Amino acid sequence: MNSGELLERSLAYALGGVAGVEAGSLRRGTPCGEWDLGELLGHLDDSLDALYEGLTGGRIGLFPRADRVCGFRTRACAVLGAWAAGPAGDRVLVGERPLDVRVMGAVGAVEIAVHGWDVAQACGRPRPIPGALAAELLNVARCVVAEEDRGVRFAAPVAVPPRARADVRLLAFLGRRESFA
């Protein structure tokens, strides 16, 4: 798995979802039950900040920065540029814990793509996560989402047929249903 390519494909997918955000829609509900669309976009901004910090400085702060001036597209381009330029090192510190930068990129790809799906759903413009991308992201998610994350960062998995599409299985594993109402 190439983490940079996975991250790039996830960002491209999420950019398509964010393109559907209309002025005045930031109070809409999202599949992330406790966040409205504005809060979800803020979380995505924080995620991109963390990825950028990890790629350029080798350290991710435990608390997000409050700066919301730059838009999602600008931050996404900055992350892609930092990855293309080459990460600052092989490891990044998350707080005081070291993490392989490729793992950080892969986890970031899951975060960005799935929240991109959330944004598209909230905007009433559902977009399935492309099958090949979803299959790779599901492999990553299965490695990094622990049972103790359930109820804190993720809802309980949702049952789906074993032969469901990869995007449906990814979303279900992360506690989401294929459609949001």
Your description of this structure?
The protein is mainly alpha-helical and 181 residues long. Helix content is 52%, strand content 6%. It has a three-stranded mixed beta sheet with strand order 1-2-3. A hairpin with a 2-residue loop joins strand 2 (91-94) and strand 3 (97-100). The protein is globular. The relative contact order is 0.18.
Order of helices and strands: HHEHEEHHH
Low-confidence stretches: 62-70
In quaternary terms, these chains amount to single chain
Estimated helix fraction: 40-55%
What is the molecular shape? globular
Distance between the termini: 34 Å
Number of helical segments with 4 or more residues: 6
- Summarize model confidence as the mean pLDDT: 83
Radius of gyration: 16 Å
Biggest sheet record:
3 strands, mixed
Category from helices, strands and their pairing: mainly alpha
Measured by DSSP, the beta-strand proportion falls in 5-15%
- Number-wise, the strands total 3
Which strands sit side by side, in order, in the main sheet? 1-2-3
Please write out the topology:
Layout: H1 3-18, H2 37-57, E1 59-60, H3 72-85, E2 91-94, E3 97-100, H4 101-122, H5 131-144, H6 166-173
Parallel strand pairs: 1-2
Antiparallel strand pairs: 2-3
Helix pairs in contact: 1-3, 1-4, 2-3, 2-4, 4-5, 5-6
